[in-house]
Write a structure and sequence with these properties.
Elements: E1 2-10, H1 14-21, E2 34-41, E3 44-51, E4 54-66, E5 70-77, E6 81-91, E7 94-103, H2 108-115, H3 118-137
Antiparallel strand pairs: 1-7, 2-3, 3-4, 4-5, 5-6, 6-7
């Protein structure tokens, strides 16, 4: 397994940074190589990526999520990876977004890329583009305030919507 750990400070309140991060379908706007993400359930997403000319599809499961604090995930099919993004309030208008990720390069090309730091560089660029995206907007495109305990079946629905909502729904 290869481990990557990166952080970026964003000039928005912690709630704004966290809410935007829960809008998984917006990730293609700032994550290089991510073509689309579809929210399947409150805790499952379907990803389509194209990196180095290789297209992959896989599902990821949120394993733990706490508003304004953390989102943890792992893949349930496809290339093995997992990680956690944590949100740290530095002051009323600044948040540190910290990403820890582990992945298992599968092909010779992926192993070479990992050894050369290509993926680490891409993750750093993705965090910088997230910073630009949210700071330029100044506000989130939506947010999901549900809480997911360590076991996925502990997921709660959104407290602010009568229908329960799902991640990806804008806050109303």
């Amino acid at each position: 397994m290869t481990t990557i750990e990166k952080s970026v400070d964003v000039a928005v309140p912690v709630t704004t940074a966290y809410n935007q991060w829960t809008q998984f379908e917006s990730f293609p706007h700032f994550m290089e190589g991510v073509e689309s993400i579809q929210q399947l359930t409150p805790t499952r997403t379907h990803w389509v990526t194209k990196i180095g000319g290789v297209q992959r599809e896989f599902d990821a499961e949120i394993t733990e999520q706490h508003p304004d604090e953390r989102v943890a995930w792992h893949t349930v099919e496809g290339p093995p990876q997992g990680g956690v993004v944590t949100f740290h309030r530095l002051d009323d208008r600044t948040t540190r977004v910290h990403l820890q990720m582990e992945y298992d390069p599968q092909t010779l090309t992926e192993k070479a890329g990992a050894a050369l730091g290509v993926v680490e560089h891409r993750v750093s660029g993705d965090l910088d583009r997230f910073k630009e995206f949210i700071e330029h907007r100044g506000t989130e495109t939506g947010g999901w305030r549900g809480d997911v305990g360590r076991a996925p079946q502990a997921a709660e629905t959104r407290h602010d919507l009568p229908d329960g909502g799902v991640p990806g729904d804008p806050i109303r």
